[in-house]
Protein backbone atom coordinates (compact mmCIF):
# COMPACT_ATOMS: atom_id res chain seq x y z
CA UNK A 1 0.00 0.00 0.00
CA UNK A 2 1.08 3.56 -0.63
CA UNK A 3 0.22 7.03 0.58
CA UNK A 4 -1.69 9.51 -1.57
CA UNK A 5 -1.94 13.30 -1.65
CA UNK A 6 -5.50 14.65 -1.52
CA UNK A 7 -7.68 17.72 -1.95
CA UNK A 8 -6.11 20.23 0.44
CA UNK A 9 -2.57 20.07 -0.99
CA UNK A 10 -1.32 23.66 -1.37
CA UNK A 11 1.90 22.63 -3.17
CA UNK A 12 4.35 23.97 -0.60
CA UNK A 13 6.60 20.93 -1.21
CA UNK A 14 7.37 20.29 2.47
CA UNK A 15 6.75 16.58 1.82
CA UNK A 16 9.29 16.47 -1.01
CA UNK A 17 12.20 17.20 1.29
CA UNK A 18 11.32 14.46 3.79
CA UNK A 19 10.58 11.60 1.39
CA UNK A 20 13.47 9.12 1.60
CA UNK A 21 12.84 7.67 -1.88
CA UNK A 22 12.10 10.88 -3.84
CA UNK A 23 8.71 9.66 -5.01
CA UNK A 24 6.77 12.94 -4.69
CA UNK A 25 6.61 15.09 -7.81
CA UNK A 26 6.88 17.58 -9.32
CA UNK A 27 9.64 18.86 -7.04
CA UNK A 28 10.49 22.58 -6.94
CA UNK A 29 13.49 21.79 -9.15
CA UNK A 30 11.31 20.32 -11.92
CA UNK A 31 9.82 22.40 -14.72
CA UNK A 32 6.25 21.25 -13.99
CA UNK A 33 6.37 22.64 -10.42
CA UNK A 34 3.90 25.49 -10.08
CA UNK A 35 1.87 24.40 -13.09
CA UNK A 36 0.25 21.32 -11.51
CA UNK A 37 -2.72 21.71 -9.16
CA UNK A 38 -1.11 19.55 -6.47
CA UNK A 39 1.83 17.21 -5.89
CA UNK A 40 1.58 13.45 -6.45
CA UNK A 41 2.98 10.34 -4.82
CA UNK A 42 4.19 7.53 -7.07
CA UNK A 43 2.45 4.48 -5.56
CA UNK A 44 4.96 2.10 -7.13
CA UNK A 45 7.92 3.73 -5.35
CA UNK A 46 6.35 4.79 -2.05
CA UNK A 47 7.72 2.68 0.80
CA UNK A 48 4.90 3.58 3.17
CA UNK A 49 7.09 5.29 5.77
CA UNK A 50 4.57 8.06 6.56
CA UNK A 51 7.21 10.80 6.86
CA UNK A 52 5.37 12.99 4.33
CA UNK A 53 2.05 12.72 6.18
CA UNK A 54 3.73 13.84 9.42
CA UNK A 55 5.35 16.82 7.69
CA UNK A 56 2.35 18.07 5.66
CA UNK A 57 1.09 21.36 7.20
CA UNK A 58 -2.46 20.88 5.87
CA UNK A 59 -3.07 17.17 6.56
CA UNK A 60 -3.36 16.34 2.86
CA UNK A 61 -1.58 12.94 2.90
CA UNK A 62 -3.17 9.63 3.88
CA UNK A 63 -2.51 5.93 3.37
CA UNK A 64 -4.52 4.86 0.32
CA UNK A 65 -6.45 2.26 2.32
CA UNK A 66 -7.72 4.95 4.68
CA UNK A 67 -9.22 7.14 1.94
CA UNK A 68 -13.00 7.34 2.17
CA UNK A 69 -15.83 8.88 0.14
CA UNK A 70 -14.69 11.52 -2.34
CA UNK A 71 -11.07 11.17 -1.18
CA UNK A 72 -10.84 7.67 -2.74
CA UNK A 73 -10.53 9.28 -6.16
CA UNK A 74 -7.09 10.56 -5.15
CA UNK A 75 -5.47 7.11 -5.25
CA UNK A 76 -6.17 7.14 -9.00
CA UNK A 77 -5.23 10.81 -9.42
CA UNK A 78 -1.82 10.27 -7.77
CA UNK A 79 -1.09 7.12 -9.79
CA UNK A 80 -2.29 8.66 -13.07
CA UNK A 81 0.32 11.41 -12.78
CA UNK A 82 3.04 8.81 -13.30
CA UNK A 83 1.36 7.14 -16.26
CA UNK A 84 1.25 9.80 -19.02
CA UNK A 85 4.38 10.65 -21.02
CA UNK A 86 3.82 14.40 -20.36
CA UNK A 87 3.75 13.97 -16.63
CA UNK A 88 6.70 11.67 -16.13
CA UNK A 89 8.99 13.28 -13.56
CA UNK A 90 12.38 14.41 -14.75
CA UNK A 91 14.23 12.40 -12.09
CA UNK A 92 14.00 8.61 -12.01
CA UNK A 93 11.90 7.72 -8.98
CA UNK A 94 12.50 4.00 -8.53
CA UNK A 95 14.33 2.91 -5.40
CA UNK A 96 16.23 4.94 -2.84
CA UNK A 97 17.88 8.22 -3.78
CA UNK A 98 21.68 8.21 -3.80
CA UNK A 99 22.92 11.73 -3.36
CA UNK A 100 26.02 12.87 -5.14
CA UNK A 101 27.95 14.44 -2.24
CA UNK A 102 29.67 17.26 -4.14
CA UNK A 103 31.09 20.39 -2.53
CA UNK A 104 28.66 21.62 0.15
CA UNK A 105 26.79 24.84 -0.61
CA UNK A 106 24.93 26.93 1.93
CA UNK A 107 22.55 29.24 0.09
CA UNK A 108 21.45 31.13 3.15
CA UNK A 109 24.68 31.87 4.98
CA UNK A 110 26.09 35.37 5.40
CA UNK A 111 29.82 36.07 5.97
CA UNK A 112 30.94 35.10 9.51
CA UNK A 113 31.74 38.70 10.54
CA UNK A 114 28.26 39.88 9.58
CA UNK A 115 26.14 41.28 12.44
CA UNK A 116 22.47 40.22 12.63
CA UNK A 117 20.36 42.06 10.08
CA UNK A 118 17.29 43.94 11.28
CA UNK A 119 14.52 43.15 8.79
CA UNK A 120 10.92 44.38 8.83
CA UNK A 121 8.34 42.10 7.20
CA UNK A 122 5.07 43.89 6.45
CA UNK A 123 2.19 41.40 6.25
CA UNK A 124 1.66 38.15 8.18
CA UNK A 125 -0.03 36.17 5.38
CA UNK A 126 1.73 33.14 3.87
CA UNK A 127 4.22 35.21 1.86
CA UNK A 128 5.38 37.28 4.84
CA UNK A 129 5.53 34.23 7.10
CA UNK A 130 7.52 32.10 4.61
CA UNK A 131 9.97 35.01 4.24
CA UNK A 132 10.25 35.49 8.03
CA UNK A 133 10.67 31.74 8.54
CA UNK A 134 13.45 31.60 5.95
CA UNK A 135 15.31 34.48 7.66
CA UNK A 136 14.85 33.06 11.16
CA UNK A 137 15.86 29.50 10.27
CA UNK A 138 18.83 30.34 8.10
CA UNK A 139 20.29 33.61 9.45
CA UNK A 140 20.62 35.35 12.83
CA UNK A 141 18.34 38.17 11.57
CA UNK A 142 16.02 40.02 13.94
CA UNK A 143 12.58 40.34 12.38
CA UNK A 144 9.93 42.99 13.01
CA UNK A 145 6.63 41.43 11.86
CA UNK A 146 3.96 44.02 11.12
CA UNK A 147 0.28 43.68 10.19
CA UNK A 148 -2.51 46.23 9.99
CA UNK A 149 -4.96 43.71 11.44
CA UNK A 150 -5.15 42.76 15.11
CA UNK A 151 -4.81 39.04 14.25
CA UNK A 152 -1.97 37.54 12.20
CA UNK A 153 -2.46 35.14 9.28
CA UNK A 154 -3.58 37.19 6.24
CA UNK A 155 -5.80 35.17 3.93
CA UNK A 156 -5.12 31.91 5.79
CA UNK A 157 -7.06 33.45 8.66
CA UNK A 158 -9.58 35.58 6.74
CA UNK A 159 -9.71 34.10 3.20
CA UNK A 160 -9.44 30.29 3.36
CA UNK A 161 -13.00 29.02 3.70
CA UNK A 162 -13.96 27.98 7.24
CA UNK A 163 -15.11 24.56 5.99
CA UNK A 164 -11.49 23.84 4.96
CA UNK A 165 -10.08 23.32 8.47
CA UNK A 166 -7.11 21.29 7.21
CA UNK A 167 -5.99 24.18 5.01
CA UNK A 168 -6.44 26.58 7.92
CA UNK A 169 -3.90 24.41 9.76
CA UNK A 170 -1.20 25.99 7.58
CA UNK A 171 -1.66 28.93 9.96
CA UNK A 172 -0.46 26.79 12.87
CA UNK A 173 2.86 26.07 11.20
CA UNK A 174 3.33 29.83 10.71
CA UNK A 175 2.10 30.77 14.18
CA UNK A 176 5.08 29.22 15.97
CA UNK A 177 7.31 31.88 14.38
CA UNK A 178 5.18 34.72 15.81
CA UNK A 179 6.63 33.98 19.24
CA UNK A 180 10.19 33.31 18.05
CA UNK A 181 12.71 35.04 20.39
CA UNK A 182 14.11 37.08 17.48
CA UNK A 183 10.68 38.32 16.37
CA UNK A 184 9.08 41.57 17.45
CA UNK A 185 5.38 41.35 16.53
CA UNK A 186 3.48 44.57 15.80
CA UNK A 187 -0.19 43.80 15.09
CA UNK A 188 -2.68 46.61 14.49
CA UNK A 189 0.07 48.72 12.89
CA UNK A 190 -0.54 49.90 9.33
CA UNK A 191 2.17 50.95 6.90
CA UNK A 192 0.66 54.14 5.47
CA UNK A 193 -2.70 55.63 6.44
CA UNK A 194 -1.62 57.19 9.76
CA UNK A 195 0.55 54.27 10.87
CA UNK A 196 4.25 54.18 10.02
CA UNK A 197 5.62 55.30 6.66
CA UNK A 198 7.88 53.39 4.27
CA UNK A 199 10.64 55.94 5.00
CA UNK A 200 10.32 55.42 8.76
CA UNK A 201 10.50 51.64 8.33
CA UNK A 202 13.58 51.97 6.11
CA UNK A 203 15.25 54.32 8.59
CA UNK A 204 14.97 51.74 11.39
CA UNK A 205 15.78 48.51 9.51
CA UNK A 206 18.51 47.14 7.23
CA UNK A 207 15.82 45.89 4.86
CA UNK A 208 12.02 45.88 4.56
CA UNK A 209 10.05 43.06 2.90
CA UNK A 210 6.55 44.03 1.81
CA UNK A 211 4.14 41.07 1.83
CA UNK A 212 0.95 43.09 1.74
CA UNK A 213 -1.03 40.86 -0.64
CA UNK A 214 -3.61 42.00 -3.20
CA UNK A 215 -6.52 43.33 -1.16
CA UNK A 216 -8.64 44.88 -3.91
CA UNK A 217 -11.32 42.73 -5.59
CA UNK A 218 -11.28 43.22 -9.36
CA UNK A 219 -14.33 44.88 -10.90
CA UNK A 220 -16.56 43.65 -13.71
CA UNK A 221 -16.79 46.99 -15.51
CA UNK A 222 -20.49 46.49 -16.35
CA UNK A 223 -23.44 48.82 -15.64
CA UNK A 224 -25.11 48.28 -12.28
CA UNK A 225 -22.26 46.46 -10.54
CA UNK A 226 -22.36 48.90 -7.59
CA UNK A 227 -26.04 48.27 -6.86
CA UNK A 228 -26.78 47.15 -3.31
CA UNK A 229 -26.60 43.35 -3.33
CA UNK A 230 -23.63 43.24 -5.72
CA UNK A 231 -20.41 42.64 -3.75
CA UNK A 232 -17.03 40.92 -3.91
CA UNK A 233 -17.08 37.18 -3.16
CA UNK A 234 -13.95 37.66 -1.04
CA UNK A 235 -15.97 40.02 1.16
CA UNK A 236 -18.56 37.29 1.62
CA UNK A 237 -15.82 34.79 2.57
CA UNK A 238 -14.27 37.41 4.90
CA UNK A 239 -17.71 37.80 6.53
CA UNK A 240 -17.82 34.04 7.06
CA UNK A 241 -14.34 34.26 8.63
CA UNK A 242 -15.25 37.14 11.00
CA UNK A 243 -12.94 39.71 9.34
CA UNK A 244 -12.91 42.86 11.50
CA UNK A 245 -13.51 45.13 8.44
CA UNK A 246 -16.77 43.36 7.47
CA UNK A 247 -19.80 44.15 9.60
CA UNK A 248 -21.67 41.18 11.11
CA UNK A 249 -24.88 42.36 9.36
CA UNK A 250 -23.18 42.94 5.97
CA UNK A 251 -25.07 40.07 4.32
CA UNK A 252 -28.80 39.37 4.36
CA UNK A 253 -29.27 36.28 2.23
CA UNK A 254 -32.96 36.73 1.65
CA UNK A 255 -33.13 35.82 -2.07
CA UNK A 256 -33.42 32.23 -3.27
CA UNK A 257 -30.85 32.60 -6.06
CA UNK A 258 -27.29 34.03 -5.98
CA UNK A 259 -25.12 34.55 -9.05
CA UNK A 260 -21.37 34.14 -8.52
CA UNK A 261 -19.38 35.65 -11.40
CA UNK A 262 -16.08 33.93 -12.17
CA UNK A 263 -14.77 30.39 -12.45
CA UNK A 264 -11.88 30.42 -9.99
CA UNK A 265 -11.53 28.66 -6.63
CA UNK A 266 -12.89 31.70 -4.76
CA UNK A 267 -16.10 31.36 -6.81
CA UNK A 268 -16.37 27.69 -5.80
CA UNK A 269 -15.65 28.50 -2.13
CA UNK A 270 -18.44 31.09 -2.08
CA UNK A 271 -20.89 28.81 -3.92
CA UNK A 272 -20.14 25.88 -1.59
CA UNK A 273 -20.57 27.94 1.58
CA UNK A 274 -23.88 29.36 0.32
CA UNK A 275 -25.50 25.99 -0.43
CA UNK A 276 -23.93 23.85 2.31
CA UNK A 277 -26.23 22.60 5.02
CA UNK A 278 -25.44 25.06 7.88
CA UNK A 279 -25.40 22.07 10.26
CA UNK A 280 -22.23 20.85 8.52
CA UNK A 281 -20.57 24.23 9.14
CA UNK A 282 -21.21 24.09 12.87
CA UNK A 283 -17.95 23.18 14.56
CA UNK A 284 -15.82 24.81 11.85
CA UNK A 285 -14.15 28.17 12.55
CA UNK A 286 -17.04 30.00 10.81
CA UNK A 287 -18.04 33.28 12.54
CA UNK A 288 -21.16 32.94 14.67
CA UNK A 289 -22.92 35.81 12.86
CA UNK A 290 -22.28 34.14 9.48
CA UNK A 291 -23.56 30.77 10.64
CA UNK A 292 -26.71 32.46 11.96
CA UNK A 293 -27.05 34.41 8.69
CA UNK A 294 -26.72 31.26 6.59
CA UNK A 295 -29.26 29.48 8.80
CA UNK A 296 -31.72 32.36 8.34
CA UNK A 297 -30.90 32.67 4.64
CA UNK A 298 -33.16 31.54 1.83
CA UNK A 299 -30.54 30.63 -0.78
CA UNK A 300 -31.50 27.48 -2.68
CA UNK A 301 -29.51 27.94 -5.86
CA UNK A 302 -26.12 29.40 -6.80
CA UNK A 303 -25.33 30.06 -10.46
CA UNK A 304 -21.60 29.98 -11.15
CA UNK A 305 -20.99 32.08 -14.24
CA UNK A 306 -17.96 31.45 -16.49
CA UNK A 307 -17.22 33.62 -19.49
CA UNK A 308 -15.23 30.78 -21.07
CA UNK A 309 -15.91 27.06 -21.42
CA UNK A 310 -15.49 24.28 -18.82
CA UNK A 311 -12.11 23.35 -20.31
CA UNK A 312 -10.78 26.85 -19.46
CA UNK A 313 -12.17 27.25 -15.96
CA UNK A 314 -9.63 28.65 -13.47
CA UNK A 315 -10.77 26.48 -10.53
CA UNK A 316 -8.73 23.40 -9.68
CA UNK A 317 -9.93 19.83 -10.11
CA UNK A 318 -9.80 18.97 -6.38
CA UNK A 319 -12.13 21.88 -5.54
CA UNK A 320 -14.58 20.91 -8.30
CA UNK A 321 -14.48 17.25 -7.27
CA UNK A 322 -15.32 18.23 -3.69
CA UNK A 323 -18.58 19.87 -4.82
CA UNK A 324 -19.78 16.52 -6.12
CA UNK A 325 -19.73 15.16 -2.58
CA UNK A 326 -21.68 17.93 -0.85
CA UNK A 327 -24.63 16.33 0.87
CA UNK A 328 -28.08 17.61 -0.12
CA UNK A 329 -26.63 19.60 -3.04
CA UNK A 330 -27.19 18.83 -6.75
CA UNK A 331 -24.89 19.98 -9.52
CA UNK A 332 -26.24 20.98 -12.91
CA UNK A 333 -24.64 22.27 -16.11
CA UNK A 334 -26.82 24.71 -18.04
CA UNK A 335 -27.01 23.22 -21.55
CA UNK A 336 -27.77 26.55 -23.24
CA UNK A 337 -24.97 26.29 -25.82
CA UNK A 338 -23.99 23.04 -27.60
CA UNK A 339 -20.31 24.01 -27.27
CA UNK A 340 -20.51 23.41 -23.48
CA UNK A 341 -21.61 19.77 -23.81
CA UNK A 342 -19.13 19.21 -26.64
CA UNK A 343 -16.23 20.45 -24.46
CA UNK A 344 -17.27 18.17 -21.59
CA UNK A 345 -17.86 15.10 -23.77
CA UNK A 346 -14.58 15.62 -25.64
CA UNK A 347 -12.46 16.15 -22.50
CA UNK A 348 -9.62 13.71 -21.85
CA UNK A 349 -9.68 11.95 -18.45
CA UNK A 350 -7.09 14.22 -16.85
CA UNK A 351 -8.81 17.46 -18.02
CA UNK A 352 -10.90 19.29 -15.47
CA UNK A 353 -13.88 19.45 -17.87
CA UNK A 354 -14.02 15.64 -17.60
CA UNK A 355 -15.06 15.97 -13.94
CA UNK A 356 -18.41 17.26 -15.24
CA UNK A 357 -19.07 14.21 -17.48
CA UNK A 358 -21.44 12.60 -15.01
CA UNK A 359 -23.09 15.87 -13.97
CA UNK A 360 -26.65 16.39 -15.20
CA UNK A 361 -27.02 18.74 -18.17
CA UNK A 362 -30.23 20.59 -18.92
CA UNK A 363 -31.24 23.87 -20.56
CA UNK A 364 -32.38 25.96 -17.59
CA UNK A 365 -35.56 28.04 -17.91
CA UNK A 366 -34.52 31.18 -16.03
CA UNK A 367 -38.08 32.52 -15.93
CA UNK A 368 -38.83 29.87 -13.28
CA UNK A 369 -37.74 30.14 -9.63
CA UNK A 370 -35.27 27.53 -8.29
CA UNK A 371 -36.93 24.17 -7.61
CA UNK A 372 -38.63 24.03 -4.20
CA UNK A 373 -37.91 20.33 -3.55
CA UNK A 374 -35.88 20.95 -0.40
CA UNK A 375 -32.57 20.29 -2.14
CA UNK A 376 -30.10 23.01 -3.01
CA UNK A 377 -28.17 23.21 -6.24
CA UNK A 378 -25.19 24.76 -7.98
CA UNK A 379 -25.73 25.54 -11.67
CA UNK A 380 -22.67 25.99 -13.89
CA UNK A 381 -23.38 28.37 -16.72
CA UNK A 382 -20.36 28.54 -19.03
CA UNK A 383 -19.68 30.67 -22.13
CA UNK A 384 -21.64 33.57 -20.64
CA UNK A 385 -20.16 36.94 -19.72
CA UNK A 386 -21.97 39.35 -17.41
CA UNK A 387 -23.23 42.37 -19.35
CA UNK A 388 -25.31 44.22 -16.73
CA UNK A 389 -26.40 43.92 -13.12
CA UNK A 390 -30.06 44.91 -13.23
CA UNK A 391 -32.39 46.20 -10.59
CA UNK A 392 -33.98 49.31 -9.14
CA UNK A 393 -33.15 49.79 -5.43
CA UNK A 394 -31.04 46.62 -5.34
CA UNK A 395 -29.97 43.68 -7.51
CA UNK A 396 -32.83 41.91 -9.31
CA UNK A 397 -31.07 40.04 -12.15
CA UNK A 398 -27.89 39.63 -14.16
CA UNK A 399 -27.99 39.96 -17.93
CA UNK A 400 -25.47 37.65 -19.58
CA UNK A 401 -24.30 37.38 -23.17
CA UNK A 402 -22.47 34.72 -25.17
CA UNK A 403 -22.20 33.23 -28.66
CA UNK A 404 -25.50 31.38 -28.11
CA UNK A 405 -27.39 34.56 -27.21
CA UNK A 406 -28.48 36.52 -24.15
CA UNK A 407 -30.24 35.57 -20.96
CA UNK A 408 -31.49 37.36 -17.88
CA UNK A 409 -30.85 35.40 -14.69
CA UNK A 410 -33.01 36.63 -11.78
CA UNK A 411 -30.98 36.85 -8.55
CA UNK A 412 -31.05 38.87 -5.33
CA UNK A 413 -27.28 38.80 -4.73
CA UNK A 414 -24.34 38.94 -7.12
CA UNK A 415 -20.88 37.98 -5.90
CA UNK A 416 -17.90 39.07 -8.00
CA UNK A 417 -15.19 36.41 -7.90
CA UNK A 418 -13.10 37.68 -10.79
CA UNK A 419 -9.75 37.96 -9.04
CA UNK A 420 -7.83 40.53 -7.01
CA UNK A 421 -5.17 43.19 -7.43
CA UNK A 422 -2.66 44.98 -5.24
CA UNK A 423 -3.08 48.59 -4.15
CA UNK A 424 -0.41 51.33 -4.16
CA UNK A 425 1.62 51.88 -0.99
CA UNK A 426 3.00 55.40 -0.32
CA UNK A 427 6.72 55.48 -0.98
CA UNK A 428 6.83 52.42 -3.29
CA UNK A 429 6.50 52.35 -7.10
CA UNK A 430 3.32 50.73 -8.45
CA UNK A 431 2.37 49.23 -11.80
CA UNK A 432 -1.30 50.05 -12.41
CA UNK A 433 -1.60 47.58 -15.28
CA UNK A 434 -0.65 44.53 -13.18
CA UNK A 435 -1.58 45.79 -9.71
CA UNK A 436 1.89 44.86 -8.42
CA UNK A 437 5.05 46.59 -7.18
CA UNK A 438 7.69 46.51 -9.97
CA UNK A 439 10.59 44.34 -8.87
CA UNK A 440 13.48 42.20 -10.01
CA UNK A 441 13.52 38.84 -8.19
CA UNK A 442 11.86 40.59 -5.25
CA UNK A 443 14.03 43.75 -5.25
CA UNK A 444 11.75 46.80 -5.48
CA UNK A 445 12.73 48.87 -8.51
CA UNK A 446 14.51 52.10 -7.56
CA UNK A 447 14.26 51.54 -3.79
CA UNK A 448 17.40 49.86 -2.36
CA UNK A 449 16.68 47.90 0.81
CA UNK A 450 12.99 47.34 -0.10
CA UNK A 451 11.69 43.93 -1.25
CA UNK A 452 8.36 42.36 -2.15
CA UNK A 453 7.00 38.84 -1.83
CA UNK A 454 3.69 37.05 -2.47
CA UNK A 455 0.70 38.46 -4.31
CA UNK A 456 1.99 42.07 -4.28
CA UNK A 457 5.11 40.79 -6.09
CA UNK A 458 3.63 38.32 -8.62
CA UNK A 459 -0.05 39.25 -8.86
CA UNK A 460 -3.04 37.54 -7.23
CA UNK A 461 -2.49 34.00 -8.37
CA UNK A 462 -1.39 30.79 -6.71
CA UNK A 463 -2.29 29.02 -3.48
CA UNK A 464 -0.56 29.19 -0.10
CA UNK A 465 2.39 26.97 -1.05
CA UNK A 466 3.28 29.04 -4.14
CA UNK A 467 4.43 31.78 -1.78
CA UNK A 468 7.16 29.56 -0.34
CA UNK A 469 9.25 29.41 -3.51
CA UNK A 470 8.48 33.10 -4.04
CA UNK A 471 9.83 33.90 -0.54
CA UNK A 472 12.96 31.84 -1.12
CA UNK A 473 13.73 33.99 -4.14
CA UNK A 474 13.10 37.30 -2.35
CA UNK A 475 15.10 36.37 0.76
CA UNK A 476 17.90 35.14 -1.53
CA UNK A 477 18.02 38.57 -3.24
CA UNK A 478 18.03 40.32 0.14
CA UNK A 479 20.91 38.22 1.48
CA UNK A 480 22.92 38.68 -1.73
CA UNK A 481 22.50 42.44 -1.36
CA UNK A 482 23.48 42.28 2.30
CA UNK A 483 26.61 40.24 1.57
CA UNK A 484 27.68 42.61 -1.20
CA UNK A 485 27.10 45.77 0.87
CA UNK A 486 24.14 47.03 -1.15
CA UNK A 487 21.81 47.64 1.81
CA UNK A 488 21.49 51.25 3.02
CA UNK A 489 22.49 51.53 6.70
CA UNK A 490 19.61 52.29 9.12
CA UNK A 491 19.82 55.52 11.12
CA UNK A 492 17.29 54.68 13.87
CA UNK A 493 17.64 51.99 16.56
CA UNK A 494 15.38 49.01 17.25
CA UNK A 495 14.33 50.67 20.50
CA UNK A 496 13.29 53.92 18.79
CA UNK A 497 11.21 51.89 16.30
CA UNK A 498 9.47 50.12 19.18
CA UNK A 499 8.53 53.51 20.63
CA UNK A 500 7.27 54.71 17.24
CA UNK A 501 5.22 51.53 16.72
CA UNK A 502 3.62 51.89 20.17
CA UNK A 503 2.60 55.48 19.39
CA UNK A 504 1.20 54.74 15.92
CA UNK A 505 -0.38 51.33 16.49
CA UNK A 506 -4.09 50.80 17.04
C1 LIG B 1 -10.91 34.09 -0.48
C2 LIG B 1 -9.61 33.33 -0.70
C3 LIG B 1 -9.51 32.00 -0.30
C4 LIG B 1 -8.31 31.30 -0.50
N1 LIG B 1 -8.25 29.98 -0.13
C5 LIG B 1 -7.11 29.27 -0.37
C6 LIG B 1 -7.04 27.88 -0.05
O1 LIG B 1 -8.01 27.30 0.45
N2 LIG B 1 -5.89 27.22 -0.31
C7 LIG B 1 -4.81 27.83 -0.88
O2 LIG B 1 -3.77 27.18 -1.09
N3 LIG B 1 -4.84 29.16 -1.21
C8 LIG B 1 -5.97 29.87 -0.97
N4 LIG B 1 -6.03 31.20 -1.32
C9 LIG B 1 -4.82 31.83 -1.87
C10 LIG B 1 -3.85 32.25 -0.72
O3 LIG B 1 -4.63 32.78 0.32
C11 LIG B 1 -2.81 33.26 -1.23
O4 LIG B 1 -1.91 32.55 -2.07
C12 LIG B 1 -2.00 33.90 -0.12
O5 LIG B 1 -2.77 34.33 0.96
C13 LIG B 1 -1.23 35.13 -0.64
O6 LIG B 1 -0.35 35.48 0.40
P1 LIG B 1 0.14 36.97 0.70
O7 LIG B 1 0.94 36.84 1.95
O8 LIG B 1 0.77 37.54 -0.52
O9 LIG B 1 -1.18 37.85 0.98
P2 LIG B 1 -2.21 37.87 2.19
O10 LIG B 1 -2.50 36.52 2.68
O11 LIG B 1 -3.34 38.70 1.72
O12 LIG B 1 -1.45 38.66 3.37
C14 LIG B 1 -1.24 40.06 3.31
C15 LIG B 1 -1.14 40.59 4.74
O13 LIG B 1 -0.64 41.94 4.69
C16 LIG B 1 -1.40 42.74 5.59
N5 LIG B 1 -1.32 44.13 5.09
C17 LIG B 1 -1.80 44.58 3.91
N6 LIG B 1 -1.54 45.89 3.77
C18 LIG B 1 -0.87 46.27 4.88
C19 LIG B 1 -0.32 47.51 5.32
N7 LIG B 1 -0.39 48.61 4.56
N8 LIG B 1 0.29 47.56 6.54
C20 LIG B 1 0.37 46.45 7.32
N9 LIG B 1 -0.14 45.24 6.93
C21 LIG B 1 -0.73 45.15 5.73
C22 LIG B 1 -2.80 42.16 5.53
O14 LIG B 1 -3.55 42.51 6.68
C23 LIG B 1 -2.49 40.67 5.45
O15 LIG B 1 -2.40 40.08 6.72
C24 LIG B 1 -7.21 31.93 -1.13
C25 LIG B 1 -7.32 33.27 -1.54
C26 LIG B 1 -8.52 33.96 -1.34
C27 LIG B 1 -8.64 35.38 -1.82
N1 LIG C 1 -8.97 25.94 -2.36
C1 LIG C 1 -7.98 26.54 -2.90
O1 LIG C 1 -6.96 25.94 -3.13
C2 LIG C 1 -8.09 28.01 -3.24
C3 LIG C 1 -9.20 28.73 -2.80
C4 LIG C 1 -9.31 30.07 -3.17
C5 LIG C 1 -8.32 30.65 -3.95
N2 LIG C 1 -7.25 29.92 -4.32
C6 LIG C 1 -6.24 30.49 -5.23
O2 LIG C 1 -6.19 31.90 -5.16
C7 LIG C 1 -5.95 32.44 -6.46
C8 LIG C 1 -7.01 33.48 -6.79
O3 LIG C 1 -8.27 32.83 -6.99
P1 LIG C 1 -9.52 33.63 -7.62
O4 LIG C 1 -10.63 32.69 -7.73
O5 LIG C 1 -9.68 34.91 -6.87
O6 LIG C 1 -8.98 34.11 -9.04
P2 LIG C 1 -8.69 33.33 -10.42
O7 LIG C 1 -8.25 31.94 -10.18
O8 LIG C 1 -7.78 34.24 -11.18
O9 LIG C 1 -10.12 33.26 -11.15
C9 LIG C 1 -10.75 34.42 -11.62
C10 LIG C 1 -11.93 34.03 -12.49
O10 LIG C 1 -12.64 35.21 -12.84
C11 LIG C 1 -12.88 35.22 -14.24
N3 LIG C 1 -12.98 36.60 -14.71
C12 LIG C 1 -12.03 37.58 -14.66
N4 LIG C 1 -12.55 38.74 -15.13
C13 LIG C 1 -13.85 38.48 -15.47
C14 LIG C 1 -14.90 39.27 -16.02
N5 LIG C 1 -14.72 40.56 -16.28
N6 LIG C 1 -16.09 38.67 -16.25
C15 LIG C 1 -16.27 37.36 -15.99
N7 LIG C 1 -15.32 36.56 -15.48
C16 LIG C 1 -14.12 37.12 -15.22
C17 LIG C 1 -11.68 34.49 -14.83
O11 LIG C 1 -12.03 34.05 -16.11
P3 LIG C 1 -10.93 33.95 -17.30
O12 LIG C 1 -10.17 32.71 -17.02
O13 LIG C 1 -11.79 33.90 -18.49
O14 LIG C 1 -10.08 35.19 -17.19
C18 LIG C 1 -11.55 33.35 -13.80
O15 LIG C 1 -12.46 32.34 -14.07
C19 LIG C 1 -5.93 31.28 -7.42
O16 LIG C 1 -4.61 30.88 -7.69
C20 LIG C 1 -6.66 30.20 -6.66
O17 LIG C 1 -6.33 28.89 -7.06
C21 LIG C 1 -7.11 28.62 -3.99
S1 LIG D 1 0.54 20.64 1.15
FE1 LIG D 1 2.76 20.54 0.93
S2 LIG D 1 3.43 18.88 2.29
FE2 LIG D 1 1.20 18.65 1.99
S3 LIG D 1 0.98 17.25 0.23
FE3 LIG D 1 0.94 19.30 -0.62
S4 LIG D 1 3.07 19.76 -1.16
FE4 LIG D 1 3.12 17.99 0.23
S1 LIG E 1 5.06 7.54 2.75
FE1 LIG E 1 7.31 7.80 2.81
S2 LIG E 1 7.98 6.91 0.88
FE2 LIG E 1 5.80 7.23 0.66
S3 LIG E 1 5.65 9.25 -0.31
FE3 LIG E 1 5.53 9.56 1.90
S4 LIG E 1 7.63 10.01 2.55
FE4 LIG E 1 7.74 9.09 0.49
TrEMBL record:
Coiled coil: none annotated. Residues 37-66 form the 4Fe-4S ferredoxin-type domain. Keywords: FAD, Flavoprotein, Iron, Iron-sulfur, Metal-binding, NADP, Oxidoreductase. This is ferredoxin--NADP(+) reductase. Residues 482-506 are annotated as: Disordered. Residues 496-506 have a biased composition (Basic residues). It holds the Pfam family Fer4. It catalyses: 2 reduced [2Fe-2S]-[ferredoxin] + NADP(+) + H(+) = 2 oxidized [2Fe-2S]-[ferredoxin] + NADPH. CDD domains: DMSOR_beta-like. Its EC number is 1.18.1.2. Its cofactor is FAD.
